[in-house]
Amino acid sequence: PGAAAMTVAADGRSATIDASGKTVGSTTITAHIKGAPDTAQYKASCTVTVVTIGSVSVSPGNYTIYTLAEPRTVQLTATVTPNAAPVWSSSNPAAATVNQTGLVTAVAPGNTTVTATVGGKSGSSTITVKDKIPVTSVTVSGTNSLVRTSDKTTVTTQLAATVKPDNAHFKAVSWAKTGGSASININASGLVTATAAGSATFTATADGVTSTPYTVTVTDQKVTGITISGENSVLVGSALSLTANVAPSTALNRDVTWSIVSGSDYASVSSVGAVSAKAFGNVTIRASANDGSGKFAEKNILVSTAAGSEISWGGKTWWLADSNGSDYGGNAGSVVLLQRGNVAYRRFAANSRNWEGSEIQQYLNDTFYEELGSYKSKLAVHKGLGGNNRVWLPSTGEIYGASGRPAYVGSGPGELRQLQIFNMAGQTYSNYSYIKTVFNGINSWTRSPYLNAYGNIGVCIVRKDTGQITQGYCYNTDVSPRAAIILNP
């Protein structure tokens, strides 16, 4: 049992009939126009069935809607058994309202119970109203270290913001710079642009929640290494151009400063690596990076002079005997020096025919070598003699000149040319054949001023392959030699 309202209309006029159910069953209600004939034209009828409602349920049973974001409404459905139309109501219309189709609309944050009622039975749904799903956290990620290079002086990186929870309503992000270098900035989409080295701090904000500050650091590509290319020697009065090879090629500042580390009395160097040779000696030149990396390279250069020239080096006086010391075992740019003046009398040894281990060999590579002090580090081992032979004997007293006659060493380069007999096989000096004839084809030798019983000068020849003396009278005789050295740059 329940109530029902019916409307009867005729000739533009209407009347309402309220029917209340008293017991289960059906009845027909007829409306007739008063005073009109009793015909179908002037009357209408309606059958009203009265039933008992078994149950009413509403779905969904609970739901959340929002005032500032979607969903702002929810459509409830009432299931009535047997089927009947319910009446809808909200317990808290200040939070949400409901119309008679079951559509609930959010009004203000709060809670309400929406009820569907029919035939004394009802069902309900709990509705929660909020203004939004709020953001709880914002996290910034992305590359935080940038490097400027020579081919890319402006660098960029894209920052990203992760907003939680995933279903937050207002996840739009705004970016802000909170401090740091003026040359590092961020745009509205989170793109960081840097035009100089430094650091800057940025934040991302969504729905009033701001991230932890995120720092981006920008550095300039530093020099990692330098090498110097150019000749290892230069003649007095000449110039030499050096080049600093800077690595990597993308270093932002590849400029270098040139300086003399040692030997400024012998040469100078310009700001572009041009070396001007002033006097014979060893020079160490440095190229230092200007970018603050602390990287540098050094090159040793020998300022040399013409063959036959007299020079001072290591506290002793020498002739420059050969400008191609690499033929004897020296580095590129090395020279051969012949001492101008004899060393103290020494001999090979009584009844000994070997250079290696002889008294004179030990003296030259021990006492004489040590007398050179800090200069000795520049000496090369003679490649024909090997071992520790940094000081050796091209001649023990005099040397053959270009004339082919014995002569004491003079100042002319022709008189020094005999040194070239120490070259390895294949050398092509013009007097090579003559010297081979004089020394029986042996490629390495020593001479002595010792006069034998016939008044002839004895010749002590030391074979390069065995180191053995093969001829002469000097193996057990004191000799006064002139020392020779190979001087590296």
TrEMBL record:
Which Pfam families does the annotation name? Big_2, DUF6273
Known SMART domains for this protein? BID_2
Q: Which residues form the BIG2 domain?
A: 52-128, 134-216, 222-298
InterPro entries in UniProt: Big_2, DUF6273, Invasin/intimin_cell_adhesion
Top-level taxon: Bacteria
Protein's name in the database:
Ig-like protein group 2
Q: What is the lineage of its organism?
A: Bacteria, Bacillati, Bacillota, Clostridia, Eubacteriales
